[in-house]
Amino acid sequence: MKTHKKPANGRQASLKIIAEQTGVSMMTVSRTLRGLNSVAPKTAAKIRKVAESLRYRPNKLVEGLRTGRTGMIAAVLPTTLGFYEEALRSIESSLDKLNCSLILNMVAQDFGQDAMREELRRLHRCIDLRVDGVILRPVNDDANAVYFNEVMERGMPLVVIDRKLPDFECDFVGTDDRSGGGAAARKLLSAGCRHLALLHAGTRISTSRERREGFLAATQNSGASVCELDCGSFLADPAQLAGFFESGAAKSVDGIFAVGDLLARDTIQVLKGLGRECPRDFKVLGFGRLLLNDPSSVRLATFDQHPGQIGEEAVRLLMDRLDNPGKPPRSVHLPAAFVAGETL
Predict the structure, then answer these.
(1) Which domains does the chain have, with CATH numbers?
(2) Which among 202, 121, 205 has a CA at the least distance from the CA of 166?
(3) 242, 140, 143: which is closest to 199 by C-alpha?
(4) Which residues contact 185 (CB under 8 A, 6 or more apart)?
(5) Could you tell me if 301 and 290 are in contact, meaning their C-beta atoms sit under 8 angstroms apart?
(6) Mean pLDDT by groups of 10 residues along the chain of 344 residues
(7) Cα atoms in the Cβ-side hemisphere of radius 13 Å centred on 119
């Protein structure tokens, strides 16, 4: 039985080695292993047998130079995955079904100039690796087009998830945050709350800004009073919260909407320290369904953003962008679903 000579010095089998051992040209080997039907069946069978015996694996980088596709997709996400963990699993699973590989880049900072510099460095790394496209959760949604200048110049497909980039045209997948904020207001009003508090993370982050806008619009003609606190981020400062709820109109609050679950959780704890119990003295709604597996937290009434669907849609848009680069940018807004809890 004839055996095939394996590459010396641990070298990976190549098209050249397979061609030498089968007595055909490298072009014939390439056509066969790419699944083209232009090679005689007997020759093709011989080539595939040798390739299998040598444990040949195609070099994606070399193939990418020929086809313009490396089969590699990058995701740039925060190191504190939280909400994005399910989205990441969905992205990886969707890419695996398409025989594509995921390259994960993680940004430690979450907001501000340092975060932008860190994010940009990772985007440039993706460009250097010649990835086919990028799925990005931006650290700042107010970055202008100049920030993404090299991405634009190279025509690299970019899909943004969760936070929008209003000054940069690209595909987007996220939650219908404005509608979600409006739904939160209606839930509190229908529960009988008339003195409402709105806790948000500022207006520079689109998710916080749009949830706030939806909430305020839905309460405008309700007859309910609304006081609001800009917490500056999705993480609460207990001293800031305590000061807010001990002063002014916030003293009589009976319904609270926090634009993120962590803000809602910390608010409940702060008010408990002030002698107020939820839902006896006030009702609370969060957003994000982030505390599902947190045994230390009360079962929070919140909204599920379906991050798995966001990941799937991001991959779908990216692949469509690769095949149709001239299409206008598209935005997909998925509805948030109310999740009942003990706080409402």
Answers:
(1) 8-58 (1.10.260.40), 70-175+308-333 (3.40.50.2300), 177-304 (3.40.50.2300)
(2) 205
(3) 242
(4) 196, 214, 215, 216, 218, 219, 222, 257
(5) no
(6) 49 73 81 73 83 71 57 89 89 93 84 78 84 88 64 82 83 96 97 96 90 97 93 90 89 94 94 93 94 75 95 96 90 96 94
(7) 24
